[in-house]
Amino acid sequence: MEESLFVKTGEDTGYDIILAHDYISLPEHIEKLGFKGRKICIISDSNVFPLYGDIVKEQLKPVSDDIFDIVFAAGEENKHLDTVKKIYEGLIGYHFERNDLIVALGGGVTGDISGYAAATYLRGIDFIQLPTTLLACTDSSIGGKTGVDLDEYKNMVGAFKMPRLVYMNLSTLKSLNGREFASGMGEVLKHGLIKDAAYYEWLINNFSEINERDSKTLQKMIKRSCEIKRDIVERDPTEKGERALLNFGHTIGHAIEKYMNFELKHGECVALGAFAASYISYKRQLLTTEECFEIRDMFVPFGLPVTLPDGADADKILELTKSDKKMNAGRIRFILLKGIGKAYIDTTVTDEEMLDGIRQLVIDKDL
Ligand SMILES: NC(=O)c1ccc[n+]([C@@H]2O[C@H](COP(=O)([O-])OP(=O)(O)OC[C@H]3O[C@@H](n4cnc5c(N)ncnc54)[C@H](O)[C@@H]3O)[C@@H](O)[C@H]2O)c1
Ligand SMILES: [Zn+2]
């Protein structure tokens, strides 16, 4: 059954998030926004476009006679300005104008790049998100953060650009490989840990249905994660405060992503970073021993790592946290937990504490 949520972006502006199981009602939702007759460009990556590009094009035929596509090589390593340049060149080649529409079809990488291109091409054109990974359905497609990496700096160049619609065909998640699915679970578990203890508990109790990708269970889970993210970004769209809670696990997670040369998936690094941050919280007596190590152990049934490869260099990872953007007057805005479901921003976390947290990932202390 199709469900929808609304994300408010102003007094009387906002966008729908549609949870569907096919692309059948996509044209109707696009037409409702007044896009009929506009040129459409589908931006997608080299894995997703061959799977779903034709279906989406077919569905969009009643909406527009001019449907184009731009396909870039899949992977985080292509989330940079050269890919954005190719998109601009493609759009210029198709004579795209201010009132035309970009459709981002793919995971978080596609959404972030396409959104950034949409924010900047001709000083901004409309775009909609068709997320196809669990990570994109539950996190990256919502909230309007777009951007690309610059050298080793993740998401260093970007813009806030709200999509006009987020439409997810949840059946696309069936073709996602196990590791990519698990990566999405890194963000999903994060949502429970920062905001909703009952949801976290529910996730753990339903791990086998989730891993089997039972359609009803997934829809319920994705909806709840979308609500949590929606509520946060509505209250704090530009990350002046509360939105930073979504960065739980990301300061150390991003450092690990770089340290491992992006061989680990984003959500895998978030899981590692989340345990390190939980360990720091535990050392500050904000979490009990049981809570801290339950958080670690509960990543495992979802296929997420809780240790780094043997010999990983904790000092080097600490060093890499310094290039993370989440700074406030030179201090890292670190997210800690004062209980499951209760995250807060802390600017007093020291290098020693972070190193201690990272070391828990390197050496399996068998506690
Ligand atoms: N903007 C935000 O708020 C936000 C939030 C969280 C993460 N992110 C960003 O999202 C990115 C990670 O997103 P991701 O994990 O979706 O990565 P991704 O877009 O690279 O997708 C992962 C892989 O799965 C493939 N794929 C996508 N959908 C598929 C499907 N249905 N079937 C088969 N294969 C499929 C892709 O081609 C890719 O190889 C990172 O760059 C991260 O920084 C952004
Ligand atoms: Zn993330």
Q: In a few lines, what is going on in this structure?
A:
By secondary structure, this protein is of the alpha/beta class. The chain contains 14 helices and 13 strands.
Keywords:
2 domains, Dehydroquinate synthase-like, alpha domain, 19% strand, four-stranded parallel β-sheet, Rossmann fold, 367 residues, single chain, binds zinc ion, three-stranded mixed β-sheet, binds nicotinamide-adenine-dinucleotide, alpha/beta, globular
Written account of the structure:
With about 375 residues, the chain is of the alpha/beta class. The chain has 14 helices and 13 strands. The protein has helices at about 25-30, 50-60, 80-95, 110-120, 135-140, 180-195, 195-205, 205-210, 215-235, 250-260, 265-285, 290-300, 315-320, 350-360, and strands spanning about 5-10, 15-20, 40-45, 65-70, 100-105, 125-130, 145-150, 155-160, 165-170, 325-330, 330, 335, 345. The strands form five sheets. It has a four-stranded parallel β-sheet, sandwiched between helices. Strands 1-2-9 form a three-stranded mixed β-sheet, sandwiched between helices. Helix 6 packs antiparallel against helix 7 and helix 6 packs parallel to helix 11. The chain is globular, with a radius of gyration of 20 Å. The chain starts with a strand and ends in a 5-residue tail after the last helix. The mean pLDDT is about 95. The protein binds nicotinamide-adenine-dinucleotide and zinc ion. Zinc ion binds near residues 187, 250 and 266.
